[in-house]
């Protein structure tokens, strides 16, 4: 679990995503964080916007409750940014691929953009 002293990093994100730990993922965000999702149903001109830690926790609870696997393939980190790619699979074989860019402030996620595509 993320502690007050621990900051968000590639290893912590990977561990939380791959173990489907929605509570831990939610703990990485600042109280006023902003999450934007761009995909087929939420194009760049009308992205899905999730604002605030409580709503982001609900978002992660939904994602992590689904019967699917998550694997963080690669990540790149800078002083105040973290990016990663993620491959997911549902039991029926449907696959999802995501790219995420996180802006960090004071060791927490302040802003995140997710671009995802899935099999149809």
Task: Please sum up the structure shown.
This protein is α+β, with helices and mostly antiparallel strands.
How would you characterize the overall build of this protein?
The protein is built from 3 helices and 6 strands; from the N terminus they run ααββαββββ. The protein is α+β, with helices and mostly antiparallel strands and 120 residues long. The protein has a single domain, classed as Nuclear Transport Factor 2, Chain: A, CATH 3.10.450. The longest helix is centred in the middle third of the chain and has 13 residues. It is globular, with a radius of gyration of 14 Å. 20% of the residues are buried. The mean pLDDT is 93.
Radius of gyration over all CA atoms, rounded = 14 Å
Give the distance, in angstroms, between the N- and C-terminal Cα atoms: 35 Å
- Give the overall average pLDDT: 93
Helix % is: 10-25%
Number of domains: 1
Largest sheet: 6 strands, mixed
Structural class: alpha+beta
The fraction of residues in strands falls at over 45%
CATH topology-level name: Nuclear Transport Factor 2, Chain: A
CATH class: Alpha Beta
Counted beta strands: 6
């Amino acid at each position: 679990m993320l502690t007050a002293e621990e900051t968000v990093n590639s290893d912590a994100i990977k561990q939380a995503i791959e173990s489907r730990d929605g509570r831990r993922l939610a703990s990485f965000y600042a109280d006023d964080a902003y999450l934007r999702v761009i995909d087929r149903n939420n194009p760049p001109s009308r992205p899905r916007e999730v604002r605030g830690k409580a709503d982001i926790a609900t978002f992660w609870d939904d994602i992590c409750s689904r019967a699917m696997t998550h694997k963080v393939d690669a990540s790149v980190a800078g002083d105040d940014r973290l990016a990663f790619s993620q491959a997911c699979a549902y039991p029926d074989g449907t696959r999802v691929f995501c790219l995420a860019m996180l802006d960090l402030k004071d060791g927490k996620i302040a802003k995140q953009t997710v671009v995802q595509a899935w099999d149809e």
